[in-house]
Amino acid sequence: MFYSEYGKTGAMVSAVGFGGMQFDVSKTNEENAELLAYAFDKGINYFDTAPVYCDDRSEDIFGVAMKMMADKRDKFYVSTKGSPVAVDTADKAVELVEKSLKRMNLEKIDFYHVWCLRKMDHYNLAMKKGGQYEGLLRCKEQGLIDNIVVSSHLPGNQICDIMKKGEFEGVLLGVNILNFLYRWEGVQSAYSDGYGVVAMNPLAGGLIPKHEKEFAFLAGDGETPTETAIRFIVSCPEITIALMGFTTREHIDMACRIAEEARPFTMEDMERIQHSLSTNMNSLCTGCGYCRDGCPKNIHVPGYMQFYNNKPLFGKTDEQMIEQLKFELEWGILVEDTGRSGDCIECGQCEELCTQHLDIIRRLAEIAKMERAVK
Ligand code: SF4
Ligand code: SF4
Question: Is the Cβ atom of 349 under 6 angstroms away from ligand 1?
């Protein structure tokens, strides 16, 4: 396992982090807690959870594990989260921190996330006078938390804008080998400004292991696509921690093995991936973003086209596409407040710019029908 400093916090954290969102809920809290102790023995020293994970049991599982690992408390870091939507006042933010501390049997949380910024409005809510951030500053003064960080589903340029303000020590974001072009600007900017960058969802929500055949083109020499995807995140110098949700000891073993054996991802590797995404995903959007600017209706064309990828890539049915669209509009790539697919006036500007020569106008018309079904 290798370790690097989380931004400028002085915390030396493991390249692989333990994500507490995939516990087997058919098992007891005690059985699940043993996974944390096992991961610690394998060299993992960053443990992440949140109040609602795993039927709201994850923080309690952490609580059992923290008792088991109490004698090593100065050797690992714990992170949890609070949403500015749920805690919209400073007092509520303090209460939630205190509740998490109690559930986890801790005296201090090392990294506390302003959780799940999906729109700039959520950021503004967290930062308003008397809001969550103010409460977290109070907690910091009282020694209840060490570092205030942020988790975000925003596109790269907006992550960049937030991190430039210097209010957070680091950022947690969903980045992986398939979507990195969409978020890379934020990753690079946060890294070069000296902040910690934690990547969640390194296997694209399980898509890559489930569709290894379709993603065979991603694989490096002697690797499976899953292994390459993990190596990509683990060995990118810009990414401090690759956060993985573990259910079994075998998952931990695989992640640690890849982290230990990982060859660095070089610029050439990055170019190879970029090239293979565009050549092997021939009728697919690569998220390159070239069509991003200039739509007279401010439609998020890359977001819509990446959503549409689900159809040719995984053969999703109309029903499944509508379900996916619901998710993307609420949580995913389409949360931004932009023009909607049905606003397209067919001017053709995006098609001219598209590096993949996609029939964007036709696809948007198809998506517009689905979007009407969502509402
Ligand atoms: S064709 Fe539609 S989506 Fe493309 S730039 Fe014109 S209005 Fe925007
Ligand atoms: S230019 Fe084409 S491939 Fe690139 S983001 Fe836009 S739609 Fe996708």
Answer: yes
Residues 187-246 have pLDDT tens digits of: 888 999 999 999 987 887 667 877 788 788 888 778 888 888 888 888 888 999 999 888
User: What is the 333 CA–ligand 2 centroid distance (Å)?
Assistant: 14
pLDDT for 163: 92
Cβ–ligand 1 distance for 359 under 6 Å, the answer no
114: left (phi over 0), alpha (psi -120 to 50) or beta: beta
Q: Which ligand is nearest to the CA of 283?
A: 2
Centre of ligand 2 to C-alpha 224, Å, is 27
Output phi, psi for 112, to 5 deg. Answer: -115, 125
Q: pLDDT per residue over 62-111, tens digit each? A: 999 999 999 999 999 999 999 999 999 999 999 999 999 999 999 999 99
Rounded distance, CA 167 to CA 22, Å? 30
CB atoms within 10 A of CB 180: 22
| Closest C-alpha to ligand 1, atom 8 | 295
Ramachandran class of 253: left when φ > 0, alpha when ψ lies in -120 to 50, beta otherwise: alpha
> Span 28-46, mean pLDDT?
97
What is the rounded distance in angstroms from the CA atom of residue 59 to the CA atom of residue 75? 19
Assigned token pair, 152: 């975000």
Phi, psi dihedral angles at 172 (to 5 degrees): -110, 125
DSSP state of 238: T
Is the pTM here over 0.70, yes or no? yes
Q: Using the structure block, give the residue that is written with the tokens 């060299």.
A: 43
Name the residue of 184, 285, 367 whose CB sits within 8 Å of the most ligand 2 atoms, as the mutation to test its pocket: 285
If one residue of 286, 292, 306 were mutated to test the ligand 2 pocket, choosing by the most ligand atoms within 8 A of its CB, it would be 286
- Please give the DSSP secondary-structure letter assigned to residue 46: E
Which residue ranges form the domains of the chain, and what is each CATH number? 3-271 (3.20.20.100), 301-374 (no CATH)
Cα-to-centroid distance, 105 and ligand 1 (Å): 54
Q: What tokens appear for 74 in the block?
A: 């100065």
